[in-house]
Amino acid sequence: MRYYEDIDVGSKQDLGSYTVPKAEMTDFAERYDPQPIHLDEELAAETIHGGLIASGWYTASVCMRLLVDGFLEDSSAVGAFGVDELRWRTPVRAGDTIDAEHRILDATESTTRDDRGYIEGELTAHNQDGEEVIEWRATSIFLRRP
């Protein structure tokens, strides 16, 4: 189990990669973000994107899964205050491979609860061409070592 005290400011975690299946990308859009640029190939081809693109929320969900599997799993994380500065930089398309990294920016002990601390981290992800596709910062709550 990784606790607040085990996390070093400045450390980086390679979160691994994920290749986007078209069916999963469009299924997500149909259910949660049914905009034509995510679902209608003909219409999407006529946009500035030149074809279907993934919902930004799909991209964020894929990266959240990579963050859980690559960093939060087997940790004492019990929640987060939210996501700050979420930016979608380059559209993701079916077949793209997303490679994510997480960097620890700050660690702050709680001043009101001695059983926890706050970890500020930044997630960035790139596609197979090295283009940044998403970035966010978030502050998570980690329990301290008992």
From TrEMBL:
It comes from the Archaea. It holds the Pfam family MaoC_dehydratas. Gene3D superfamilies: Hotdog Thioesterase (3.10.129.10). CDD domains: YdeM. Residues 15-108 form the MaoC-like domain. InterPro entries: HotDog_dom_sf, MaoC-like_dom, MCH/BMMD. PANTHER family: BETA-METHYLMALYL-COA DEHYDRATASE, MONOAMINE OXIDASE-RELATED. This is MaoC family dehydratase.
